[in-house]
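Please decode residue identities from the backbone states below.
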């Protein structure tokens, strides 16, 4: 039997899946690896295929968090460079492709099931209208989709690195705080897992709210962004709630900005590793308010369908679909 190898490679984790190349598309093996504990993608693939005990790979596609230049990718939030031809030669895979991680999410949108989507505002969907996907995780991804030749074609971008635009005095203070740290401050510096931690540190350093010893200890752990979000959702840490509210406001404003550029009457899909975990908070208050707060275009933004992608493996699904497009007939 021949197999399809697909991967979703981010700054925090790498997901690999081996599935049957036939029409059943049955997954044979799937594993998650902590990306920063490996020197590169090839070492993870080697470990994965050794466990799978197969070399009969018909095609592979890897979705990576970084700009694709030809057949190479230098990841934005990992010290990795990935070369498709080198992977093909090392693992004897006849067809290997690399795509941007949000290109993969865009490809997956049409294949999502109703249970994979939570609607924030129904809007008025235009058939075959432009679609937009945005998502915060370790980084901030953006892609849009246009209808061409009977299906949606995905256009990846690096829109998450656009300049952060503060909308109020507190956000201006945050900008100044982060400029001292980074110089250039993109939206990704704020609307991402590390960005939520940076917001917390800004509030802590500006003495805007007391921080309990318990929260300080949790933030010093392995996943500080998750600790802040969890504390905010539990409601027992004012500084965590303030950090999450500021994060959601910046997130909503960014999605609204990109929506004005793309005019996505076919729908906006907020994906990434964070949105589904804070979906309740995204349904309330600051996210939607900031998304719609565009002056004369507030009514237009209120008319756009806006959804959260709750399937955490949308990127892996998209990579699998892309691999199958290049695989020979089974």
């Amino acid at each position: 039997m021949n197999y399809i190898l697909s991967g979703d490679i981010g700054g925090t984790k790498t997901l690999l899946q081996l599935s049957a190349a036939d029409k059943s598309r049955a997954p044979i093996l799937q594993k998650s690896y902590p990306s920063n504990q490996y020197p590169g993608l090839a070492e993870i693939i080697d470990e994965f295929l050794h466990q799978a005990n197969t070399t009969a790979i018909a095609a592979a596609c890897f979705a990576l968090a970084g700009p694709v230049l030809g057949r190479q990718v230098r990841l934005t939030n990992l010290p990795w460079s990935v070369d498709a031809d080198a992977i093909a030669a090392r693992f004897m895979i006849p067809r290997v492709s690399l795509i941007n991680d949000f290109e993969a999410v865009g490809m997956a949108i049409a294949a999502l099931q109703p249970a994979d989507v939570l609607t924030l505002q129904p809007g008025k969907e235009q058939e075959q209208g432009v679609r937009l996907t945005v998502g915060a995780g370790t980084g901030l991804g953006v892609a849009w989709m246009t209808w061409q030749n009977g299906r949606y074609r995905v256009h990846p971008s690096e829109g998450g690195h656009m300049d952060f635009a503060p909308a109020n005095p507190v956000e201006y203070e945050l900008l100044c705080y982060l400029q001292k740290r980074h110089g250039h401050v993109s939206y990704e510096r704020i609307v991402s897992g590390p960005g939520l931690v940076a917001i917390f540190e800004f509030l802590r350093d500006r003495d805007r709210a007391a921080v309990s010893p318990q929260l300080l200890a949790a933030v010093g752990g392995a996943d500080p962004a998750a600790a802040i979000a969890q504390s905010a959702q539990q409601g027992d840490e004012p500084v965590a709630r303030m950090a999450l509210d500021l994060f959601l406001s910046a997130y909503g404003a960014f999605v609204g900005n990109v929506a004005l550029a793309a005019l996505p009457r076919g729908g906006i899909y907020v994906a990434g590793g964070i949105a589904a975990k804070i979906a309740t908070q995204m349904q309330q208050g600051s996210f939607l308010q900031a998304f719609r707060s565009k002056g004369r275009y507030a009514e237009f933004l209120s008319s756009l369908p806006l959804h959260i992608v709750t399937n955490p493996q949308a990127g892996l699904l998209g990579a699998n679909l892309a691999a199958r497009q290049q695989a020979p007939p089974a």
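Observation: The chain has a mean pLDDT of 94.
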